[in-house]
């Protein structure tokens, strides 16, 4: 296959690219720089609306992962605008471009997030049939997914990968947590009852390949592990995996003071998201439970 990837230098994109190359596929990386492009680099500038469409003719699969990082810092107004604009404008540009190709790809796998569901009661599971929640991230996710409409209208199979928290040693939220937990300063945030959907990076890549191979999968697909845990459970599992205490609770007020609206949307809220469509289509998780996954990641 020839696979075009945006966000190819990110946590998921770099792992995906390496796996595709290892298994004999050709990877085209959409990059923002204009100079020093290699034979497998394709220039695009999503904020300026520029993309080298000719280079994408004949690709079999497009995987769209690019977007401003939500990060672990306090959100400013400018940061929130960048989070929304980078996702919506970039997705719209890519979808319109793919739709206009003479030889469009068969499938577009476009990143989204479980933030789509907003903050839900911890005991009520939500799956791909559940409607959107309220809040900034829910609104962003809904616009993000809607931006793929031109590709779907052109007959391209579109999969919205609603990612939970991706756990990996190399990046994402886990390395920031480890700094505190290794010092014995870790613990849950707020009351600890809010759900934290998660998935190991070592499941993200095979699940993504599963979505490419299974033509019946279109629309939203939850990329989360089967074991649902709340913030309390996550802290306990990480503490046990490290052999460190994990009882120093971070009060909700302290989180709000430190991180502002980011704390409210990311740290203090969540939903019990289940991977119904992955499981029904036959995907078998390598790491369905949190503590074994953490021990594997930490080596």
Q: Kindly, what is the distance between the CA atoms of the first and last residues, rounded to a whole number of angstroms?
A: 32 Å
Low-confidence stretches: none
Q: List the strand order in the largest sheet.
A: 4-3-2-1-5-6-8-11
Shape from CA axes?
A: globular
Broad structural category: alpha/beta
SSE arrangement, N to C = EHEEEEHEEHHEEHEHEHHHEHH
Rounded average pLDDT: 95
What profile does the largest beta sheet have? 8 strands, mixed
Number of helices: 11
Brief characterization of the structure:
It contains eleven helices and twelve strands.
Describe this structure in words.
Helices cover 38% and strands 17% of the residues. With 299 residues, it is α/β, with parallel strands linked by helices. An 8-stranded mixed beta sheet has the order 4-3-2-1-5-6-8-11, with helices on both faces. A two-stranded parallel sheet has the order 7-12. Strand 1 (2-6), helix 1 (11-22) and strand 2 (26-31) form a beta-alpha-beta unit. The mean pLDDT is 95.
Features:
two-stranded parallel ribbon, 299 residues, alpha/beta, 12 strands, globular, eight-stranded mixed beta sheet
Helix/strand layout:
Blueprint lengths: L1 E5 L4 H12 L3 E6 L9 E5 L4 E2 L9 E4 L12 H23 L7 E7 L11 E2 L9 H11 L2 H5 L3 E7 L1 E3 L6 H8 L16 E3 H13 L5 E5 L7 H12 L9 H8 L1 H7 L4 E2 L2 H5 L9 H9 L1
